[in-house]
Amino acid sequence: MTTRQDLKARDIMHRDAQCIPAHETLDRAAQVMRQLDVGALPICDNDRLSGIITDRDIVIRCVAEGHDPGKVRAADLAQGTPRWIDADADVRDVLDSMEQHQVKRLPVIDNGRLVGIISESDLARHLTDQQIAEFVGKVFTPHR
Q: What sequence ranges are listed for the domain CBS (predicted)?
């Protein structure tokens, strides 16, 4: 399927992305991930995006370091400024952002609120095979 040049982030995003509150524990985040069958959750603090947490973050940055996921809060793993894209950004901007920052999931914001998230599967439904190959080559290859 070829990408139409007029596609916007809102056209390809997965709607109804669920946030985990910043104060929530990592064991609860893992339960929500299981329930939703997702590998990442946006972290929200007072309805504002403050980060994103992945199942890998919980395992590597909490469990493997000997911390109790029942005591570590989602906010404790949210580092730096979260990457996001405006809902009206075009698909090329989405790809550029994901490639530049080497992220596999990108929250979508509209009027300051989280409205969705874009993942590799969302891209695969809307991009050509060549575009997907370029994306994978850039995102999954570490910068040197």
A: 13-69, 77-134
- The domain in which residue 116 lies consists of 9-139
Say how far apart CA 39 and CA 59 lie, in whole Å: 12
Nearest CA among 142, 7, 21 for reference residue 85: 7
Q: Residue 136 burial by CB count (10 A; 0-12/13-18/19+): exposed, middle or buried?
A: middle
Question: For residue 43, what are the β-bridge partners?
Answer: 20, 51
Q: What is the pLDDT of residue 3?
A: 45
What pTM, to 2 d.p., does this model score?
Answer: 0.84
Place 76 in a pLDDT band, splitting at 50, 70 and 90: very high
Question: Does any domain span residue 101?
Answer: yes
Assigned domain for 126 exists: yes
Number of domains in the chain: 1
